[in-house]
Amino acid sequence: MTGILVLAGTPIGDISDAPPRLAAELTGADVVAAEDTRRLRRLTQSLGVQPTGRIVSYFEGNEAARTPELVEALVGGARVLLVTDAGMPSVSDPGYRLVAAAVEKDIKVTAVPGPSAVLTALALSGLPVDRFCFEGFLPRKAGERLSRLREVAEERRTLVYFEAPHRLDDTLAAMAEVFGTERRAAVCRELTKTYEEVKRGPLGELAAWAAEGVRGEITVVVEGAPEKGAGELDAAELVRRVRVREEAGERRKEAIAAVAAEAGIPKRDVFDAVVAAKNAERSGP
């Protein structure tokens, strides 16, 4: 009989948020695969439990190499528990490879639901939560980051991102450039921890705030693109949409036609707005 793979959520901050089943799984698993064995030790000490199974590391650097070993244990009947540093495994953390490999071998995969920075940030953001997209971490390089943001510039659903504190200012500035400075957003910092903070406001203001330096674990929630009908898009917004498409590789003629179709207005209106903006830039202040 094959074993079972258990994905267990761990606290994203407050240790008392640990799901009740986590302690039992930690003590009963034959193998505990942890993103950081030192953090696992602190977690078990806080919960007052002692794993009886074998403990192995399972992180980005060894995920590909260690997956076959864990699958072999599962095929042999082991109960393998996978935990990451915080939140649910596989969500911007190690786990996907192991789940995919276990599924391929017809091994049962289950979960111990736990805290999620994505859902917690969404709930606290004050932005629409009925439909959302999780985009994970943006690329580190500026050009790649802008390209990724342009892909979702017209996405109607609320967007959720993880980001490192030292890159937050650049990321928010890029979002303001692509999405517009007035697009609403929320920066959720140190969720469930002592210094938890949720900073809400337009992207332009948040970018200026982050330029002063921000510390801690960061989740960014951004409002989806507004649904605007004919006559509701001002000239600046029309020009912005054309530029986003041009920067993504479209020719200006095609970009103008696409924006006009989206807005339900004549192409000539969009063309005139683009020409006026170009003339204004040339004439300067």
Oligomer: single chain
Structural class given helices, strands, pairing? alpha/beta
- As a percent range, the share of strand residues is 15-25%
Envelope shape: elongated
Main sheet summary: 5 strands, parallel
Mean pLDDT across every amino acid position: 92
Strand order of the largest sheet: 3-2-4-1-5
Brief synopsis:
With 285 residues, the protein is of the alpha/beta class. Helix content is 43%, strand content 18%.
Feature tags:
alpha/beta; 5-stranded parallel sheet; 285 residues; 5-stranded mixed sheet
What does this structure look like?
There is one protein chain. The protein has 285 residues and is α/β, with parallel strands linked by helices. It is 43% helix and 18% strand. It has a five-stranded parallel beta sheet, with helices on both faces. Strands 6-7-10-8-9 form a five-stranded mixed beta sheet, sandwiched between helices. Strand 2, helix 2 and strand 3 form a beta-alpha-beta unit. The protein starts with a strand and ends with a helix.
